Amino acid sequence: MRIFLATLLTLIAVNLSAYTIKSIKYDGLVHMSESVALRMLEFNVGDEVDNEILDKSIKKYFEQGYFRDIWIDIDGEILTYHFKEKPLISQIELKGWKENDEEIMDTVIQIKIGSLYDYKKLQRAKERIIEVISQEGSIDSVVEIKKENLDGGSVKVIFVVNEGEEIIIHNLEYGGVNKLDSDDFNDVISNKEIEFMSWFWGQNSGEMKLADLAYDPHRIRDLYMQNGYLDADVKAPFVKVNFDNYTADMSYQISEGEAYTISAITIDQMKKVSDDDQIKEFVELKIGDVFNIKTFRQDAEKIKTHIADLSYAFVQVAPDLKKDKEKKTVEVVFKIMPGKKVKIRDVIISGNSRTLDRIIRRELYLGPGDMYSLTDLADSRNALGRLGFFEENTIEEKRVDNETIDLVVKVKEAPTGNIQIGGGYGSYGGLLLSLSVDDRNIWGSGINVGVKAERSELTSTYSFNISNPRLNDSDFSGSFKVFTSDYEYNDYTVLSDGFNTGLGYRFSRHVSGYFGYGYSKNSYKFDETNSTLDTFFYEDYSKSSITLSVKFDNTDDYYLPRKGFTFSQSIEYSGVGADAEFIKSRTNFGIYKGLKNLLGFDAIARYKLKFNYVKENGYLPIAERFYMGGIGSVRGYESYSISPTVPDSTDASKIRRIGGEYTASNNFELSFPMLPQAKMRLVTYLDWGFIGTTKDSRDDYITQNLSRGGFGAGVEWFSPVGPIQLMFSKPLASKEGDKTSVFEFTMGQRF
C-alpha cells in the first residue's frame, strides 16, 4: 500500500535507528482537532521513537475512517504528519429505482449529505438496495456506484440500479388439505398463484414476495387454528424456480389433524384483582364451541384492558391451552399476572411550539397523581387527535419503577390557520376572489377566529366568527357569528344578513350538546331570464330560530379518522317572532375503519349517512327547503341542483326547483395512501341520495321522490393551507334536465 511504502521509505531515508522528537506538527487535518490527534499518540514530545512506533501511529489515525492517505516526514527533530482526507458527499442520487424517495434514502441508503466518502459504507448501501429489491420479489438485480467530483472538492454519489426480473408463481399446490378449502388460504398468504387477467385490480399477480415467504406457513396454520385445528402442521413451502423464464412452482405439505372443541374456560389470577365471573363477561369463547385462536386473542386483549383500567399498567395475560388429544377438547386458560398498581407521577408535554400546554392538558384524562387506566390513555390520544391542531400525537409510558410511570405527550403541530389574499377557480362558484384570516387555534389558545371577505361568480360572503370550545377551560363552549351573504342557486339568488350565537356543554368525553339562537333577514333576486318567475315561491322573509343539538364523537382524528364513529342530531325551531315558521331536523352519522391490519397498508373505509326533514308550521320559505348535489351529498351533480320541481304558473314551459322536505344521502368511500410524504391520498367513492316532497306551498299535493347516485375517484390533500378535495365523478340514474358535474373541488372540509 502507498501509505506504508511511503512511510517506510521516509523512515529509512531519515534515520535507520531510534531518535528523539522535540516537536510534532499536523498538515491537512480538518475533521479531527490537533489536540485529539496528539492524545491518540502513544508517545509525547521528548520521547524516543522508532519506526515501529511511528508505523502504529499511522495505522491508528487511518482506522478513524477520515483519511484516504497519510504520510510523515522528519526534519531534524520535528515530526510532521501529512493527511489527505476523504472528500465530503454533497449529493446522493438514485437512478432506475425509487427515485426521489426520501424514505428509501433514510432506511436503505443510510448515508447522509455531508458525510465522508467511504467505500465500505457505499458497498453496504449497495447490498441493502439489492436485498430490498430481492425482498420485493426481483432477483439478479445489479447496482453500480458512480462518483462525480464537484467543485470545492466534494463528490456526488450515484447509485445506478438495474432491477432484476420478478419471479411469477405459475403453480401453487397444497398436499394433505381435506378439512378446509385451500382457496381460503389466498385470503391470508402473500405468495399466491397468478390468476387470469392478473393485471386487473383485485386479481392475483403471482409476484413472489420473498420477505413473506417464511411467514406464509404460519398464516396458513393460524387459519387452521381459527377453525379449531390445534395440531395442524404446515411445512415450509418447496419452491422450484425456472431461471430461464423466471417462473416458479410452489407446494405446501400440510398435516391437518382434528378440530378441538372447548371443554372449559378458566381464569387463573396470580393475584386476585377482579372477580372471575366479571372477567368472563369479556370472553366471547363458549364451552362446546370449536376453538378459535383469533377470538381467543381478542378475549385476552379485552381482559388485559379491563385489568389495566384497574391501574395495573404492567399486566400480562398469558395464554395456556390444555389439550386432551384423545377427546379432541381443549381447556382455555387465561393466566393473568397483574403486577402492582401504578400511579402517574408526571405528565410531560413536548413538541408544542405553538399550542399552550394547558390546551393539551385539558384534553387528557390522566394527570399527575391519577391511577393508571388504559382506556383513559387511549381516549386521551383520540381526544388530542380530534382537536385537529396536530399532524400526529403519541403518549409514551415511561416506567419509573414498578408502581410509578411518567406520561410523555409528544405532538407535532399542524397548520390550523392561514391568511389568504388571492383567488382561485371553484367547480360551482366559478372565479373566486377572497381575503380571509382564519385560525382554529389562534395564538395556540384553542380559540377559533375567522374573518372572511369572499366573492365569486355565484356567491358573496362577508363574515366574522369566534368560538371557544372550552370557555375558561371548562366543559362549556361558546360561539358567535355575524354575516352578510348572497348565494346563487340554480333559479334565483338568496341575500341574507344575520347572526348566530350559542352555548354548548360537554356532557362526557364523547357526548356534547348545543343550544343556539339565530336571526336573519332574507330576500330573493332574479336575473333577466327569470324575471317572470312565479313570485308566490319567492317572498322576502325574516327568520328567528332556536337550535338544539347533541353530538357523539369517539373518532381518533379531526381531519382523517381511522376508527370510531360520529352521530349528531339537531332540531331547529323557527317562529320565535319572525316570518318563517317551521321545524327542521338534521341527522348525521359516520363510521370510520382503518384497514392497515387487514391489507398491510394505510387504507381507510368510510360510510356517511345524512337524513334531513323539515315540517312547515305556518310558512316554509323555499330557501329553507333541502337540495342535493355536489360534495357532501351526491357527487356527479352540480351543487344544490337535485330537487323536486313544479311548473311555473306564469310560463307552463318552465319548471322550478322548489326543494325537498326530506333528503337522505349515503356515501361509501375507500381512501388509499398515494404520496404519504406530501400527505396526499387517493379516494374512490359511491354516493346515493334520495329527496322528496309531498306538497308545494299552494297546497297542491304533488308527491315527488327523486333518487340519484354517483361514483368516481379523487384526491385528498392535506395541504399547507388546509384540506383540499379534488373529485372526478360519473352520475348514476341521471334524467333529462339534470345538471351533472364531472369535476368538483372543495377546501377546508373534513375528509
Topology:
Layout: H1 2-14, E1 19-20, E2 23-27, H2 34-40, E3 48-49, H3 51-62, E4 67-75, E5 78-85, E6 89-95, H4 102-109, H5 119-135, E7 138-139, E8 142-149, E9 155-162, E10 165-166, E11 168-175, H6 210-213, H7 216-226, E12 233-234, E13 238-242, E14 247-255, E15 261-269, H8 276-280, H9 293-308, E16 316-324, E17 329-337, E18 343-350, H10 357-361, H11 374-387, E19 390-401, E20 404-413, E21 417-426, E22 430-439, E23 448-456, E24 459-468, E25 476-488, E26 493-506, E27 511-525, E28 541-553, E29 563-574, E30 581-594, H12 596-599, E31 604-619, E32 645-648, E33 651-657, E34 662-675, E35 680-693, E36 704-719, E37 722-732, E38 743-747
Parallel strand pairs: 2-5, 6-9, 11-14, 15-17, 18-20
Antiparallel strand pairs: 1-3, 4-5, 7-10, 8-9, 12-14, 13-14, 16-17, 19-20, 21-22, 22-23, 23-24, 24-25, 25-26, 26-27, 27-28, 28-29, 29-30, 30-31, 31-34, 32-33, 34-35, 35-36, 36-37, 37-38
**CATH homologous superfamily placement of the largest domain:** membrane protein fhac: a member of the omp85/tpsb transporter family
Structural class: alpha+beta
Query: Considering DSSP H and I runs of 4 or more, what fraction of the residues is helical?
Result: 10-25%
Return the CATH class of the largest domain.
Mainly Beta
User: Could you tell me the number of beta strands?
Assistant: 38
The helix tally amounts to 12
CATH architecture of the largest domain: Beta Barrel
In angstroms, what is the radius of gyration? 36 Å
Q: What would the principal axes of the Cα set say about the shape?
A: globular
**Biggest sheet: strand arrangement:** 21-22-23-24-25-26-27-28-29-30-31-34-35-36-37-38
Q: How many structural domains does the protein architecture include?
A: 6
CATH-assigned fold name of the largest domain? Porin
User: Could you list the spans in which at least 5 consecutive residues all have pLDDT below 50?
Assistant: 1-16, 419-432
End-to-end separation: 64 Å
Mean pLDDT: 85
How much strand content do the residues show? over 45%
User: Major sheet: size, sense and barrel closure?
Assistant: 16 strands, antiparallel
